[in-house]
Amino acid sequence: MSRISEIRNMVLAYEDSLWSGTLKSYPNERVPHGYLSVFKCHPDAYHFHRHEMFNFVARSGESSSLIAEFEIIRSKLIEYDKQNGYIIRQYLKTENGLNKLVDRLRNIREMYTELLPQSDGQIYLTRTWLNYYVSTYEVTEYLLMLLMILQALNGMEIDTTFSAMRDRKGNVVKGRVINRIRELSGDYPVLNEYFCSGFNPGFRNSIGHNNYRIDGNMFIDLDGALSIDIECFRRMNYHLQEIHSAIFNFMNLHAINTDKIVDCGTISVGYQSNFNGIPALNIFELWSFSSISQDLSWLHTIKVNANKLHLKLKLNGRIIYKNLWDKELVRWYDLTKDNDKILVRVITIQPHINHNETDFNIRGKDYEVLSSKVLGYFPISHTGRL
């Protein structure tokens, strides 16, 4: 099994435990990379990193091109929201945003979990699987969120009540929403392909109106409007699930005010006492935070506190690392006493997935270096003494 497959299985197992409510008894050694460290910093940092980790493992799968498009979409909408009073983020906090969606997803997840053992992990043309497709198709919140995203990307005015998409009774007309999404998604070909494949109104209506029969591995509409074989159904179901996953990830990531968590990606530090004769501090930052921390632009103060047991390092008054003394650390500390500034370098890391030797291990998890950059000299202050 490849390293990325191992990490993907770890992430999925963790999610299963989270959704099933058994996380309290989940063993720490099976928790994915960085989760525990960022949770200690801020709960929003944990949710942010968790959903970025989902994107990380998805990039290596069949839907990597869809994930890539959604990363472009998210970067554009971050700027859009800043210029428009955070209208999308505010919508996500309403009852029609994430709250109701989570309950719907729990129902679908339970249905999916019940289906899998009966089919050895495969999707078949059975009435039970067809009903699962309809239940997934009917999650209105996904459609409205995607419509809002595309309206923003196309420079249109956003109506968070979606009045133009409702009938006289105020109910959302899904067919109207689906047609509009198809019209607006042309600039994003992968999204358009997945959406047009996964959301098939004719297929859904045949199932919902009980206007079909199953003949072997063929789905046949009784009016002759369409026929779908098992491979086509599996592809439709897969595209529908992947669209949902991408939108759900977007919603969770976009709902977070990242200004509060810019410093939460630093999970370890390294002390270097002889960097061209100057003491240096290496700050190891998770790749998931590198886009929001802007090369540690949040870092203003570095303080060290020394006692006989350990050295305590505090970054920006919040992030604290404790290290027991060894010869190298004593030498580094002594050098900092002779200098009012130290050299700081940010090292961006991700889970170890390539075939080279493991770069290093942090709290039982293997990481590799993505990039390394010298930030410059920072003032350092001291308290306590050896």
Q: Would you give an account of this structure?
A:
This protein is α+β, with helices and mostly antiparallel strands. The model has no long low-confidence stretch (mean pLDDT 89). The chain is built from 14 helices and eleven strands. Strands 4, 5, 6, 7, 8, 9, 10 and 11 form an eight-stranded mixed beta sheet that branches. Helix content is 48%, strand content 21%.
Features:
386 residues; alpha+beta; eight-stranded mixed sheet; three-stranded antiparallel sheet; 21% strand
Total number of strands: 11
Low-pLDDT stretches: none
Strand content: 15-25%
What is the overall shape?
A: elongated
Helix count, DSSP H or I runs of 4 or more residues: 14
- Which percent bin holds the helix content? 40-55%
Structural class: alpha+beta
Succession of helices and strands: HHHHHHHHHHHEEEHEEHEEEHEEE
Query: Mind telling me the C-alpha Rg?
Result: 25 Å
Q: Could you give a short account of the major beta sheet? A: 8 strands, mixed
Distance between the termini: 49 Å
Mean pLDDT: 89
Question: Could you give the topology of this structure?
Answer:
Blueprint: H1 3-20, H2 35-41, H3 43-58, H4 64-83, H5 87-92, H6 95-119, H7 127-137, H8 140-153, H9 174-184, H10 189-198, H11 201-208, E1 212-215, E2 218-221, E3 227-229, H12 230-254, E4 266-275, E5 278-286, H13 290-293, E6 302-306, E7 310-315, E8 319-324, H14 327-337, E9 341-351, E10 360-362, E11 365-384
Parallel strand pairs: 5-9, 6-11
Antiparallel strand pairs: 1-2, 2-3, 4-5, 6-7, 7-8, 9-11, 10-11
